[in-house]
Amino acid sequence: MTTQWTLTLDVDWAPDYIIRSVMKKIAAAKIPCTWFLTHKSPAVDELLALDCVEPGLHPNFLPGSTHGATPKGVLQHLMTLFPGVTAVRTHSLVQSTPLLMEMIAAGITTDVSLFLPAPTPCEPHTLHLPTGSILRIPYNWEDDVAIWSAGRMPLFESTVFLSKRTIFNFHPTLIYLNAVTLDQYEAFKKAKPQTPEEAQRFISSGNGTGAFFDKLLQAYQRRKVEMQTINETAVAWRSNA
Question: 196 FRET partner, CA 20 to 30 A, in 25, 56, 110, 124?
């Protein structure tokens, strides 16, 4: 069976120098991927100009969200910034039946907010609700959860995935920091470094998130795996349903 991966990234308001750093790796590898976006910026515009990058939305429905005060307002805000985008992963994986109904009403067709840790298979399913239907695609590896769950789920060893259908999720800032603990990220957020030079002291060396991300790109470049974007996964599932 062909090894099949999907690479996704949650932007989470990463500064432009971090987006550009990860974007450079993506562009060099020419790896198809889906970025769930939180905001517009010059770097995000550059990112979306890459043929290998597919946009998704990353709405923040938490209290105090800068995206809006209501679910409808949050969705309208992001869908105005990125018109025509119909795939969502919610920030902090906030989800409920009323929220899914609101997303369907707004024109969202695919939701990727279900996390089922590896080695759980990523089998999509269609959820039918009063406002319509939505395809839900679970994902089964995430960088911050891997750090939290060290020893209980695969961390930074790519070979464990070579015989599995895996949907990865990374955060650009954790890649950039090569994070091995989330204390690094919290310290980085508190300091708010504005340049790569200011951020340098927060970057770790060795076997961390960034190193694992590089291994994943290398596996793709060696053609050990087939890559699909979220939209390609959705189209394939719907055509076979």
Answer: 56
Q: Is 123 helix (H, G, I), strand (E, B) or coil?
A: coil
Sequence length of the chain is 241
The topology under which CATH files domain 4-240 is TIM Barrel (3.20.20)
Contacts of 100 (CB under 8 A, 6+ apart): 111, 127, 129, 134
45-69 residue pLDDT tens: 999 999 999 999 999 999 999 999 9
The first and second tokens of residue 227, run together, are 């890559």
Environment class of 152 (CB within 10 Å of its CB; exposed 0-12, middle 13-18, buried 19+): exposed
- Is residue 181 exposed (0-12), middle (13-18) or buried (19+ Cβ within 10 Å)? middle
Looking at residue 222, what is its pLDDT? 84
CB 89 within 8 A of CB 36: yes
